[in-house]
Amino acid sequence: MKLDLNIDPRSLGKVAVLMGGSSAEREVSLTMSGPGVLKALRSQGVDAHGFDPSERPLQVLKDEGFERCFIALHGRHGEDGTVQGALELLGIPYTGSGVMASSIAIDKIMTKRLWLADGLPTPRYVKLKKSEISRENCMAIPDELGLPVFVKPPHEGSTIGSSKVEGYSQMQEAVELAARYDDEILCEEFIDGPELTCPVLGEGDTAVALPVVQIEAVGGNYDYQNKYFTDTTRYLTDTLSVELEREVRELTLAAYRSLGCRGWARADVMLRKRDNKPFLLEINTSPGMTSHSLVPVSAKAAGISYEQLCMWVLSQARLDGQVPSKQG
Questions:
Q1: What GO terms are given for molecular function (predicted)?
Q2: CB atoms within 10 A of CB 148
Q3: Distance separating alpha carbons of residues 310 and 255, to the nearest angstrom
Q4: What domains sit in the chain, N to C, each tagged with a CATH number?
Q5: Per-residue pLDDT tens digits for 278-289
């Protein structure tokens, strides 16, 4: 894989690193991803400044002459198409996917529908609305999907509000937890096997998948705590055969293109232990950029440093309808 990593910082202009925001993932964005990206860009000579859209109106970006934005926001109002739409109206190019792809990818149920329509493998699921929560409906879900079941709010990330249900007695509690964060609840067939992730850089036919990362969390529980605040989770590359690595990368590229993503993103995949079949879980269009994050781990395996990754992603910032940069 070849990317043009020789980027003149002066060509990037005045840059706002959007961090914080108002989602349930505000803390990670404000204290980890955002500062990490800001430090990296400044170390490369970029005129970069932190900007929290929950504390200052986005119009300030236009008033103060910012020329592009690195979106280091996570979750709602950060990667769901809303801030992207506002930046479109302001005419300020931004990193990552456009309005439509962002709004689809944040919705795990809509994402699954599109993947299934395109013949891509994703775990079987049942959708519940808040108004449909009852003991009878909750108990019917394991009958349809089997046990274990994974229950999650479909518009949140970082496993917030998510539960692995091992028995019928846990089902209603898990659904009610997810309902605290969302008006819909996604109940998903549990795929038993290794958890993988695969980042993508670029757009359309020229997009490339980076090395697959296998996640090994203590007790197999890759939750919010183990994602961001412990050093016991292991992130491994080169664990798959050449053929299986290729298969997961090609599947990830197909999933990325199916949603119309651009710039960069990261797909989460489960590898079924009994037959090594990969299943798509979701795509993150504004991936984490913390010291524990998966895209930097994968990029490093491809010979790309954290700083180079940030610079390349920033160099691809654009508006919907603009011609993509030829860099890469």
A1: ATP binding; D-alanine-D-alanine ligase activity; metal ion binding
A2: 18
A3: 23
A4: 9-95 (3.40.50.20), 105-121+192-315 (3.30.470.20), 125-189 (3.30.1490.20)
A5: 999 999 999 999
Cβ count within 10 A of residue 39? 14
Indicate if the pLDDT at residue 138 is higher than 90.
yes
Question: Measuring CA to CA, how many Å separate 60 from each of 10, 26, 51, 80, 84?
Answer: 22, 20, 10, 21, 15
Q: What average pLDDT score do residues 202-210 get?
A: 95
Distance CA 190, CA 148 (A): 6
**Interval 221-264: pLDDT, tens:** 544 454 545 566 889 999 999 999 999 999 999 999 999 999 99
> For residue 43, how many other CB atoms are within 10 A of its CB?
13
CA pair distance 99, 187, nearest whole angstrom:
26
What would the pLDDT profile of 140-177 be if each residue is shown by its tens digit? 999 999 999 999 999 887 578 999 999 999 999 999 99
**Residue 277: Cβ-neighbour burial (10 angstroms; 0-12, 13-18, 19+):** middle
**Residues in Cβ contact with 2 at an 8 Å cutoff, skipping those fewer than 6 apart:** 328
Which two three-digit tokens encode residue 151? Answer: 């229950």
282 marked ligand binding residue = yes
- Annotated ligand binding at 284? The verdict is yes
